[in-house]
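BUG: 3D viewer hangs when loading the predicted structure for this chain

Environment: internal workstation, default settings.
Expected: structure renders.
Actual: progress bar stalls at 90%.

Input used:
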Amino acid sequence: MVFRLVAATGCRRDEVCGLKWSAVEIDGTVPRVMIRRGVLDIQRQRIVRDTKNHGGRWVGLDPETAELLRKHRDRSFELGEVAGAPVTADDFVFPRSPGSDEPLPPNRIGQAWRRLCRQLGVEARLHDLRHLQASLLLDAGEAITTVSARLGHRDTSTTLKIYSHLMPGADQRAAGIVGKAFARPPAENSPDA
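C-alpha coordinates produced before the viewer hung:
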Protein backbone atom coordinates (compact mmCIF):
# COMPACT_ATOMS: atom_id res chain seq x y z
CA MET A 1 0.00 0.00 0.00
CA VAL A 2 2.88 2.38 0.76
CA PHE A 3 4.36 1.91 -2.72
CA ARG A 4 0.98 2.32 -4.38
CA LEU A 5 0.33 5.55 -2.50
CA VAL A 6 3.76 6.95 -3.40
CA ALA A 7 3.23 6.07 -7.08
CA ALA A 8 -0.37 7.35 -7.15
CA THR A 9 0.37 10.68 -5.47
CA GLY A 10 4.01 11.43 -6.24
CA CYS A 11 4.65 12.13 -2.57
CA ARG A 12 8.07 11.71 -1.01
CA ARG A 13 8.79 8.72 1.24
CA ASP A 14 9.01 10.94 4.32
CA GLU A 15 5.59 12.40 3.42
CA VAL A 16 3.88 9.01 3.14
CA CYS A 17 5.34 8.12 6.55
CA GLY A 18 3.89 11.33 8.02
CA LEU A 19 0.37 10.74 6.67
CA LYS A 20 -2.31 10.54 9.36
CA TRP A 21 -5.87 9.25 9.02
CA SER A 22 -7.19 12.75 9.71
CA ALA A 23 -5.60 13.79 6.38
CA VAL A 24 -7.30 11.04 4.37
CA GLU A 25 -10.64 11.60 2.63
CA ILE A 26 -11.63 8.41 0.83
CA ASP A 27 -15.34 8.05 1.49
CA GLY A 28 -16.60 11.07 -0.46
CA THR A 29 -16.94 11.64 -4.18
CA VAL A 30 -13.46 13.18 -4.47
CA PRO A 31 -10.94 10.86 -2.78
CA ARG A 32 -7.80 12.67 -1.71
CA VAL A 33 -5.08 12.96 0.90
CA MET A 34 -3.57 16.03 2.54
CA ILE A 35 0.20 15.89 2.47
CA ARG A 36 1.30 18.20 5.27
CA ARG A 37 4.11 16.55 7.23
CA GLY A 38 7.17 14.41 6.76
CA VAL A 39 9.20 12.07 8.93
CA LEU A 40 12.97 12.35 9.18
CA ASP A 41 15.53 10.27 11.04
CA ILE A 42 18.31 12.61 12.16
CA GLN A 43 21.09 11.43 14.45
CA ARG A 44 19.09 8.41 15.59
CA GLN A 45 16.08 10.57 16.38
CA ARG A 46 12.78 10.44 14.51
CA ILE A 47 11.34 13.88 13.80
CA VAL A 48 7.89 14.65 12.42
CA ARG A 49 7.94 18.05 10.72
CA ASP A 50 6.27 20.11 8.01
CA THR A 51 6.77 19.07 4.41
CA LYS A 52 9.91 20.10 2.56
CA ASN A 53 8.28 23.30 1.28
CA HIS A 54 6.47 23.87 4.63
CA GLY A 55 3.02 23.81 3.07
CA GLY A 56 0.24 21.29 2.91
CA ARG A 57 -1.30 20.13 -0.35
CA TRP A 58 -4.34 18.08 -1.30
CA VAL A 59 -3.56 15.31 -3.77
CA GLY A 60 -6.40 13.49 -5.49
CA LEU A 61 -6.55 9.71 -5.65
CA ASP A 62 -7.74 7.51 -8.46
CA PRO A 63 -10.68 5.22 -7.58
CA GLU A 64 -8.61 2.02 -7.35
CA THR A 65 -6.01 3.56 -5.03
CA ALA A 66 -8.82 5.01 -2.90
CA GLU A 67 -10.41 1.56 -2.64
CA LEU A 68 -7.10 -0.07 -1.66
CA LEU A 69 -6.56 2.64 0.96
CA ARG A 70 -10.11 2.10 2.24
CA LYS A 71 -9.39 -1.63 2.68
CA HIS A 72 -6.10 -0.77 4.43
CA ARG A 73 -7.97 1.61 6.77
CA ASP A 74 -10.67 -0.95 7.57
CA ARG A 75 -8.06 -3.63 8.28
CA SER A 76 -6.00 -1.23 10.44
CA PHE A 77 -9.06 -0.24 12.46
CA GLU A 78 -10.10 -3.89 12.82
CA LEU A 79 -6.63 -4.93 14.04
CA GLY A 80 -6.57 -1.99 16.44
CA GLU A 81 -9.86 -3.08 17.98
CA VAL A 82 -8.67 -6.68 18.36
CA ALA A 83 -5.40 -5.52 19.94
CA GLY A 84 -7.23 -3.22 22.34
CA ALA A 85 -5.58 -0.15 20.83
CA PRO A 86 -8.29 1.47 18.69
CA VAL A 87 -6.99 3.50 15.77
CA THR A 88 -7.95 7.18 15.82
CA ALA A 89 -7.88 9.96 13.24
CA ASP A 90 -4.64 11.22 14.81
CA ASP A 91 -2.84 7.91 14.15
CA PHE A 92 -0.39 7.41 11.32
CA VAL A 93 -1.70 5.56 8.27
CA PHE A 94 1.53 3.55 8.34
CA PRO A 95 2.64 3.17 11.97
CA ARG A 96 6.01 1.72 12.99
CA SER A 97 4.14 -1.35 14.21
CA PRO A 98 0.46 -2.15 14.80
CA GLY A 99 -0.85 -0.09 17.71
CA SER A 100 2.21 2.17 17.73
CA ASP A 101 1.87 5.93 17.87
CA GLU A 102 5.19 6.25 16.02
CA PRO A 103 5.35 6.63 12.24
CA LEU A 104 6.95 4.08 9.97
CA PRO A 105 10.64 5.01 9.56
CA PRO A 106 11.38 6.20 6.01
CA ASN A 107 14.43 3.93 5.74
CA ARG A 108 12.19 0.85 6.24
CA ILE A 109 10.28 1.80 3.11
CA GLY A 110 13.53 2.13 1.16
CA GLN A 111 14.75 -1.23 2.43
CA ALA A 112 11.47 -2.96 1.53
CA TRP A 113 11.56 -1.37 -1.94
CA ARG A 114 15.11 -2.61 -2.59
CA ARG A 115 14.15 -6.13 -1.46
CA LEU A 116 11.11 -6.13 -3.74
CA CYS A 117 13.16 -4.91 -6.70
CA ARG A 118 15.80 -7.61 -6.11
CA GLN A 119 13.08 -10.30 -5.97
CA LEU A 120 11.59 -9.04 -9.23
CA GLY A 121 14.94 -8.48 -10.94
CA VAL A 122 14.16 -4.81 -11.46
CA GLU A 123 16.55 -1.91 -11.10
CA ALA A 124 14.61 1.05 -9.76
CA ARG A 125 14.87 3.48 -6.91
CA LEU A 126 11.90 4.26 -4.68
CA HIS A 127 12.22 7.89 -5.81
CA ASP A 128 11.55 6.65 -9.36
CA LEU A 129 7.88 6.23 -8.36
CA ARG A 130 7.78 9.99 -7.87
CA HIS A 131 9.37 10.46 -11.28
CA LEU A 132 6.80 8.06 -12.73
CA GLN A 133 4.03 10.37 -11.49
CA ALA A 134 5.60 13.36 -13.23
CA SER A 135 6.36 11.40 -16.40
CA LEU A 136 2.83 10.06 -16.78
CA LEU A 137 1.23 13.44 -16.20
CA LEU A 138 3.57 15.40 -18.46
CA ASP A 139 3.33 12.78 -21.21
CA ALA A 140 -0.46 13.10 -21.06
CA GLY A 141 -0.15 16.87 -21.52
CA GLU A 142 -1.12 17.85 -17.98
CA ALA A 143 -0.33 21.45 -17.04
CA ILE A 144 3.03 21.98 -15.37
CA THR A 145 1.25 23.84 -12.56
CA THR A 146 -0.79 20.70 -11.75
CA VAL A 147 2.27 18.44 -11.84
CA SER A 148 4.20 20.87 -9.66
CA ALA A 149 1.36 21.09 -7.12
CA ARG A 150 0.98 17.30 -6.88
CA LEU A 151 4.71 16.85 -6.32
CA GLY A 152 4.82 19.60 -3.70
CA HIS A 153 7.33 21.80 -5.48
CA ARG A 154 7.41 25.34 -4.17
CA ASP A 155 7.16 26.70 -7.71
CA THR A 156 6.91 25.43 -11.27
CA SER A 157 10.51 26.35 -12.09
CA THR A 158 11.67 23.44 -9.90
CA THR A 159 9.42 21.05 -11.80
CA LEU A 160 10.60 22.41 -15.14
CA LYS A 161 14.28 22.10 -14.17
CA ILE A 162 13.84 18.47 -13.18
CA TYR A 163 11.35 17.27 -15.81
CA SER A 164 11.70 19.46 -18.91
CA HIS A 165 13.50 16.59 -20.68
CA LEU A 166 10.23 14.63 -20.40
CA MET A 167 8.49 17.05 -22.72
CA PRO A 168 10.17 16.23 -26.06
CA GLY A 169 8.31 17.59 -29.02
CA ALA A 170 6.49 20.15 -26.87
CA ASP A 171 7.89 23.01 -28.95
CA GLN A 172 6.85 21.34 -32.20
CA ARG A 173 3.34 20.73 -30.82
CA ALA A 174 3.21 24.40 -29.81
CA ALA A 175 4.21 25.42 -33.34
CA GLY A 176 1.39 23.27 -34.74
CA ILE A 177 -1.17 24.87 -32.44
CA VAL A 178 -0.06 28.36 -33.45
CA GLY A 179 -0.01 27.35 -37.11
CA LYS A 180 -3.60 26.09 -36.95
CA ALA A 181 -4.68 29.36 -35.35
CA PHE A 182 -3.08 31.33 -38.20
CA ALA A 183 -4.35 29.11 -41.01
CA ARG A 184 -6.96 30.67 -43.25
CA PRO A 185 -9.65 28.62 -44.87
CA PRO A 186 -9.17 28.48 -48.66
CA ALA A 187 -11.19 31.04 -50.62
CA GLU A 188 -14.01 29.58 -52.71
CA ASN A 189 -12.72 30.88 -56.07
CA SER A 190 -9.04 30.23 -55.43
CA PRO A 191 -7.25 27.42 -57.28
CA ASP A 192 -6.75 25.64 -53.94
CA ALA A 193 -10.48 25.39 -53.28
